[in-house]
Amino acid sequence: MEKLNGKKKLKVAVFISGRGSNLKSLINFSKNKNSGIKIALVISDNKYAKGIYLAKKNKIKFLFINYKFKNAAENKILINLKKNYIDFICLAGFMKILTKKIIINYKNKILNVHPSLLPKYKGLNTHRRVIKNKEKFTGCTIHLVNTKLDSGKIILQKKIKIFKKDNEKSLSKRVLKIENLIYPKAVKKFINSIL
Ligand code: GRF
Question: Which residue, 43, 93, 122, 190, is the most exposed by fewest CB within 10 angstroms?
């Protein structure tokens, strides 16, 4: 926890692998006086992730983690989380699965954004499967991370209607918009629940 302008701010690490639209929405949120967070570290397993530029632009400490050796990668992550006094973690399109080592160290302190209405459609290719199954609704979920894939406690969800004309691309675009919208709200709700 850090005091900024007389207010206490929890230190957050955001993990990304690509585009970084959720990172962007969290950065924007963190700039609000009353957000209660400071993004102190961005971690990426992909050297070429677009999100890295957002970290640079906003002068946020950035770390590339080479995942060739998972054990070493996670050790390096843990060292850096501790070194930067990280209070909690937001996974934002991070495509690696964290092992127990990190999850236990940050028990109930890791949030993830998933593009479906969990517990439905865990895992990858959610939009493709949702369309194939002719679902009427889909959405996104912000949840806590536990050792089972996409199975931790749900913090916030938002549902949208699937239109007849929707395809995988249009749906992923519309769902991404609501991901960006609710991630900061879920962070706020999470903070209120732990303080
Ligand atoms: C999002 O669709 C998220 O649900 C999924 O990966 C995507 C990340 O997008 N896990 P971005 O990098 O935040 O733009």
Answer: 122
Contacts of 44 (CB under 8 A, 6+ apart): 15, 16, 17, 51, 52, 62, 63, 64, 65
Q: Is the pLDDT of residue 18 over 70?
A: yes
With a 6 Å cutoff on the Cβ, whether 92 touches ligand 1 is: yes
Protein residue whose Cα sits closest to atom 9 of ligand 1: 93
Q: In angstroms, what is the span from residue 9 Cα to ligand 1's centroid?
A: 25
To the nearest whole percent, how much of the chain has pLDDT over 90? 95
192 phi, psi to nearest 5 deg: -60, -30
Tell me which residues are annotated as active site. Answer: 114
Ligand 1 centre and the CA of 3: distance in Å? Answer: 30
Question: Rounded to the nearest 10 degrees, what angle do helices 21-30 and 168-194 cross at?
Answer: 30
pLDDT, position 81: 98
What does the DSSP assignment read for 19-58? --HHHHHHHHHHTSTTS-EEEEEEEES-TT-THHHHHHHT
> Could you tell me how far CA 91 lies from the centroid of its own chain?
3
Residue 1 has pLDDT above 80, yes or no: no
| Residue from 15, 16, 19 to probe ligand 1 pocket by mutation (most atoms less than 8 Å from CB) | 19
Q: Which of 69, 80, 70, 73 is nearest to 106 (CA)?
A: 80
